[in-house]
Amino acid sequence: MTLQPSDMPLLLEPEHLNAHLGDAGLLIVDLSKAPIYQQAHIPGAIHLDFRRLQHGAPPVNGLIPPPDELEALFRELGLTPDTHVVACDDEGGGWAGRLLWLLEIAGHHRYSYLNGGIHAWLAAGLPTDSQPVLPRPSEYHLGEINLQPVVDIDYVFKRHGDADVVLWDARSLEEYEGTLAYAPKSGHIPGAVHFEWTDAMDKSRNLRLRDPETLRSELAALGITGDKEVIAYCQTHHRSSLAWLVGRVLGFDNIRGYPGSWSEWGNHPDTPAEKEIR
């Protein structure tokens, strides 16, 4: 049978996924580092090199792959319109979130994040495999691109000071403050608020997301709320893909990702930067 959306919530616990292993229409994509996947992965999971989720050249490495590359990638994975994708990784959700963000851009809304990824799966004592799983390629056709989840540098430049927009900087505090930089400019986009991506993870529960209502409260204290347009960024929209995913879990209707992120903003001659020490 084909999976129904109600069968797979956006935030999926390992035990729930285990009960669905082998279901038709289920595609588990593991974005862990290759040695981790080779050692142990969820039965049936295919491996995807996370580097294929980004397109660009130095210094701006995190841009969206062009439509023909996205279509080729999704065909290679075996995606179909009825496929329900479950993404997992070994780092708490950054690369998994990036894949789900790209699926949203492609107009494919049938997806889940495995809460805690492979760490939570192993901690639950669930079955694993060490043999690689080859995908079954499909004839997936990429339709109209959904640009709602995306902003570009011009949009951020024009709107970063608007009262109904909040920029969520998911980098380290050192990067936000400007004491550490991976671009000629240091600091953050003016007005951006800081909530590091790892602060969304519960390190005592195998990198699952922390309690959603606690996250909602902590983010609200910073002005990151669902009634605003939330723009998440980091260096390459890898770490901030988890911020985007957290926003989706919390029901934020208008959370967007800035793929250029600081690698673009911090290298552009005309962009402003702030260095606020808190």
Order of helices and strands: EHEHEEEHEHEHHEHEEEHEHEH
Largest sheet: 5 strands, parallel
- Count of DSSP-assigned helices: 10
Could you say which overall geometry the principal axes of the C-alpha atoms support?
globular
Q: What is the mean predicted local confidence, pLDDT?
A: 96
What Rg is obtained from the alpha carbons, in whole angstroms?
A: 18 Å
Low-confidence stretches: none
Major beta sheet, strand line-up: 1-7-6-2-3
Q: How widely separated are the two ends? A: 54 Å
Residues in helix, %: 25-40%
The assigned structural class equals alpha/beta
Number of strands: 13
Content of β-strand: 15-25%
Summary keywords:
single chain; 278 residues; alpha/beta; five-stranded parallel beta sheet; 13 strands; 29% helix
Can you put this structure into words, describing what you see?
This protein is 29% helix and 16% strand. It is built from 10 helices and 13 strands. The protein has a 5-stranded parallel β-sheet with strand order 1-7-6-2-3. Strand 8, helix 7 and strand 9 form a beta-alpha-beta unit. The protein is globular. The mean pLDDT is 96.
